Amino acid sequence: MDEADLNRDRLALALEAAGLDLWENNLLTGEVSRRAMKTITTLGYPEEEQWTYVEQFFQLIHLDDQPRVQLALDEHLSGRSPQYRAEFRLRAKDGSWLWFANYGKIMDREGSTPGQRFVGVTFNIDDRKRKEDELAQINQQLAEQNALLELLAASDSLTGLANRRRLMELGANECKRTARFSHDLSLLVVDIDFFKNINDAWGHQVGDRVICAVAEACNSRIRVGLDTAARVGGEEFVVLLPETNHTSACAVAESLRQAVASKQVPTNETGVSISFTVSIGVATLQGGAMSFDQLFNNADKALYRAKQSGRNNVQSWDDAPWPV
């Protein structure tokens, strides 16, 4: 055995160990001087069909992958890329699709002189691709779970409205935006009247239904993507209204009060429903500098006045003296 034969055997052994299928094309004559026979065998085609598919290799490539493979070939053959690299799916005998990769290069190109020996390897990457797909699915699931956890962390579990923590974050940001752009920012603080009496008379299950009914009324009056409705306590709610002047905020509050007063919630007794009311305090920041805590406190003072005025009404905070 001469040195050339030894080198061929060494190359064959190295390719076998690495799982590589060597191929070579003569670009000048169009002859395929070495064919990727191992790849065709891996795909499960019997010996009598193998030559047909070797000659029609491109037809085995998935239709969605063919443009990408053709582009990679064109880029290298035209000299725009230093080597040819492509990943694609091949149709197996049983109809399944397996992932393979092709790496190739024109070996005898010098400067502007076109080469004619296009040599490369094909190898199976199906296991890697499937693991990548599984990892991508896991990452997608984790992202969805994280988004859900963030939503749950910012939401009230009973009503689905924003919770106090989320409200305070949004409120602080809106106060900064109001100071910067001189927009009005209004706040409604809503409290269910005599809620303890409802719980005592009908139980906490009915009390929860009342809370959810008020939450629905609050949520139905906000502008999606701009306003925020939040539950901040047992029976207390807040509606944050950016870019809303005092007159408009009072109109929203009165509409909300009337909507709640018209609601009926079923009790655990057949055919028996209860009605209920809310008191609402309104405060507005008119383009100035004020902390959200202070705006909240102003609206809370207005709520106190509504309670003192007999409940089931809307009151506004202003600069007039407040009773102790």
Q: Any key phrases for this structure?
A:
324 residues, alpha+beta, Beta-Lactamase, 2 domains, 10 helices, 12 strands, 45% helix
Question: How far do the termini sit from each other?
Answer: 110 Å
CATH homology-level superfamily of the largest domain: Reverse transcriptase/Diguanylate cyclase domain
Query: What's the total count of β strands?
Result: 12
Tally of separate helices = 10
Helix content: 40-55%
Radius of gyration, Cα only, in angstroms? 36 Å
CATH class of the largest domain: Alpha Beta
Average pLDDT, rounded to a whole number, is 88
Pairing-aware structural class of the strands and helices? alpha+beta
Spatial strand sequence of the major β-sheet? 2-1-5-4-3
Biggest sheet architecture: 5 strands, antiparallel
CATH architecture of the largest domain: 2-Layer Sandwich
CATH topology of the largest domain: Alpha-Beta Plaits
Q: Residue ranges: pLDDT <50 for 5 or more in a row?
A: 319-324
- Give the helices and strands as they follow along the chain: HEEHHHEEEHHEHHEEHEEEHE
Dominant shape: elongated
What number of domains? 2
Q: Report strand %.
A: 15-25%
Brief digest:
By secondary structure, the chain is of the alpha+beta class. Helix content is about 45%, strand content about 20%. It is elongated, with a radius of gyration of 36 Å.
Topology, please?
Layout (H helix, E strand, L loop, with lengths): L2 H16 L2 E6 L5 E3 L2 H6 L4 H9 L10 H12 L6 E8 L5 E10 L10 E8 L1 H28 L10 H18 L2 E9 L2 H8 L1 H16 L8 E4 L4 E7 L3 H16 L3 E2 L6 E2 L3 E9 L5 H17 L5 E3 L8
Helix pairs in contact: 7-8
